[in-house]
Design goal:
- The structure is a homotetramer.
- By secondary structure, chain A is mainly α.
- Chain A has a single domain, classed as Up-down Bundle (Substrate Binding Domain Of Dnak, Chain:A, Domain 2), CATH 1.20.1270.360.
- Helix content of chain A is 69%, strand content 4%.
- Chain A has five helices and two strands.
- In chain A, strands 1-2 form a two-stranded antiparallel ribbon.
- The longest helix of chain A is centred in the N-terminal third of the chain and has 29 residues.
- Chain A is elongated.
- Chains in contact: A-B, A-C, A-D, B-C, B-D, C-D.
- The interface between A and D is medium-sized, with 21 and 21 residues.
């Protein structure tokens, strides 16, 4: 196990990707700090997932449902990816970054569609998707 | 369809449970407002789900994992129920209340176990579970 | 810990609900057998969840989407509950039965709606929902 | 909209990726057939997700839990990705392939770890993970 290095106000141990030897494993307590760093992105994903579920359900009650079909479809896909991205980050998974990249693309597509509709739930969903896409891209960088 | 009735600053239409005739269906636009009311409980559930996932993963890195076995088990169960309660509320489902009742019980059990451990992630999880149990019971009332 | 009792081809230990003392905890290895018993219900839930997701997405592509609005809404709710029921059973959770009860009700509602539409995806979803409702009720008994 | 082309026993319309104009949108009824094609991969993902959840919970009851820590962690991550891959495929999402690629990697890692332990639940989980990784790679090809 290598030496701790200063990182902001704390010392962290440089994790060797994929190494779970007993030394590295305990050094992974650092994941607790990672969780703090991830927190912004987790919040953005969870808020976006909930906004997508709400938008899908609300679209179904609009007068012109047919016009909203693609919006509902993208809402469902985006919600599924956002919930899972939040889960992988909360679990401190090494795969979180890759999923965040995929999630950001889904958010972009959903935001582009939602933004075309004037309904409050669509505009709110578009805003949540844009914020989530940004947070996921920062995370995946 | 019955007449709108005053409710705080807005007028709402009393929804006939389970009725989806075209009149009632459109009156369900009111669900958008319901979503706002649900927002507190949705937030509490999502925060709790994420705290449980984080706690489960962090427990696995503690020195005495065996002592944490029940904590991890309850974390996994509680997270699954919290995510789903948040989803049903976001979808404006009529079944949300029943699930919130079940979710509150899972939160109680998880909080009781987590509270016995001194780790930060356990204490944070216990607090999130307690807040979520309260919010779910208010919702289910 | 009480004595093992014969159960089909195996001996099982009567689990004391909610007891996780070290004796009971290890006796819970029996949960592995429970998992086998649960398998039918897990399969029915997973199949139903997937059929609901497929039905929701396929309904959005039908010519008369508006007619399918309630079907899509119930598909989304039913899928969320079925996935989670399968998760809790796979995790050997004590709360699985209660969720199965709720899941069975959601399946009934979704089956009743889907059965009214002639589309293949609706008829397939209705059949999956009925099978799942039955399996969940047996589990919850 | 282009002409249908023969594909096995059915005719399919070549979908223009990402195009949801009214012509293309209706041609997407073909997704119903896609769902059939996806079925094998969906089944493998759902079976794997359930096996991972069962393995995680069963590991927690083993005598030497500490030895199982990495197994439980990878089970949780793999289950989350498998459920979501199954969801995206069931929804006929254009993003399903990308997620399947990520899911296959998670399955590989989980299978490699599980295979090292002699417990039935670990061996069953390793087998489910391998089958799922294969199905996901075929899908993503």
């Amino acid at each position: 196990m290598t030496k701790p290095i200063p990182h902001g106000k704390v010392y962290i141990w440089p994790l060797q990707q994929g190494c779970w030897c007993s030394s590295c494993f305990f050094s992974k307590k650092i994941m607790q700090q990672t969780f703090q760093q991830y927190q912004d992105c987790i919040d953005a994903c969870l808020h976006c997932a909930s906004a997508c579920d709400n938008c899908a359900s609300s679209c179904l009650q609009e007068e012109h449902v047919k016009m909203m079909a693609r919006c509902i479809q993208l809402d469902m896909e985006c919600a599924a990816l956002c919930y899972t991205a939040a889960r992988l980050m909360s679990l401190g998974s090494e795969r979180a970054k890759e999923l965040c990249r995929l999630c950001a693309d889904a958010c972009d597509a959903c935001a582009a569609e939602c933004a075309q509709h004037q309904h409050d739930h669509c505009q709110q969903c578009a805003a949540a998707c844009r914020r989530c896409a940004e947070a996921c891209r920062r995370m995946a960088a």
